[in-house]
Write a structure and sequence with these properties.
Strand order of the largest sheet: 1-2-3-5-7-10
Strand content: 15-25%
Number of strands: 10
CATH architecture of the largest domain: Alpha-Beta Complex
Mean pLDDT: 92
Structural class: alpha/beta
Low-confidence stretches: 1-6
Number of domains: 2
CATH superfamily of the largest domain: 2-enoyl-CoA Hydratase, Chain A, domain 1
Helix content: 40-55%
Order of helices and strands: EEHEEHHEEHEEHHHEHEHHHH
Radius of gyration: 19 Å
Distance between the termini: 44 Å
Shape: globular
CATH class of the largest domain: Alpha Beta
Length: 265
């Protein structure tokens, strides 16, 4: 084995500890660039976490000084040599971002550093984003001649607004951490030594809440954001919650002045 091989990093690493799952991008020498191999691994990891009833919160992060440099442009260059245009598939980057957005449990992006290219959409697809005070972001699609995929543009517009989306996509200019917070890309900025305590605190809050109810409300919020709200389904979930075990436990815990125990989702 080549002694330098470990420096190339690995596919993303998954760790599950009780109610918390963490997926960590793991190519630090390449700023955690995302390859087709990584996309396949991430989709498999999402499947695994989604089947684990004990998991209540998912954290996405990176190894080293950056969250991610985005999709490997070398793969896009290679695809240009093919005679046919690429078609959407289960292993596409767009599908990965959409899967993260629609993941049933709450998701937190732990932004340990800069976020660039397609990885800006992976982070935006998460429900919450906490970043260190050295963060910066760049969406260079216009600079490299790439029309971004539709759901990514929709996510930018619905979550950040038209003005911010135009600034980021059309100017292809880097913005600093203060601007990331101002436009709502970041929920919180913290010093490096406070990143993990902040993640831990938010993860604990999310893990303690009623999972079935959170899953339904997250789905409704996402549907509203993309102008596809299924009001009848949301109303059914509301009615079911009034008769469900979660509200019984929540009311009992409130009356007994103790934390609720919602058990398995």
């Amino acid at each position: 084995m080549n002694a330098r091989e470990p420096d190339a990093g690995t596919t993303p690493v998954l760790a599950i500890e009780g109610p918390r799952a963490t997926i960590r991008l793991n190519r630090p020498r390449q700023l955690n660039k995302i390859t087709p191999e990584d996309i396949a691994a991430l989709l498999e990891q999402l499947d695994k976490v989604g089947r684990d009833d004990a998991v209540r919160v998912l954290i996405l992060t990176g190894t080293g000084r950056a969250f991610s440099g985005g999709y490997d442009l070398g793969d896009i260059a290679a695809s240009q040599k093919q005679s046919a245009l690429p078609t959407p598939s289960r292993s596409s980057f767009e599908e990965l971002a959409n899967r993260i957005e629609d993941f049933p449990v709450p998701t937190i992006c732990r932004l340990n550093g800069g976020v660039y290219g397609g990885s800006t959409d992976l982070a935006l697809a998460c429900d919450f984003r906490i970043g260190v005070n050295t963060c910066e972001m760049l969406m260079p699609a216009a600079r490299v001649g790439l029309h971004y995929y539709p759901s990514g543009i929709r996510r930018y517009v619905s979550r950040l607004g038209v003005a911010a989306a135009k600034k980021l996509f059309l100017t292809a200019q880097k913005i600093d951490v203060a601007e990331m917070l101002r436009i709502g890309y970041l929920d919180v900025i913290v010093p490096v030594d406070e990143l993990d305590p902040s993640i831990d605190a938010l993860a604990a809050v999310l893990a303690a809440n009623a999972p079935k109810v959170m899953r339904g409300m997250k789905a409704a919020i996402n549907e509203i954001a993309r102008a596809a709200f299924d009001e009848d389904a949301a109303r059914r979930r509301h009615q079911e919650s009034l008769r469900g075990d979660e509200i019984k436990e929540g009311i009992a815990a409130f009356g007994e002045k103790r934390p609720p125990d919602f058990g398995r989702r």
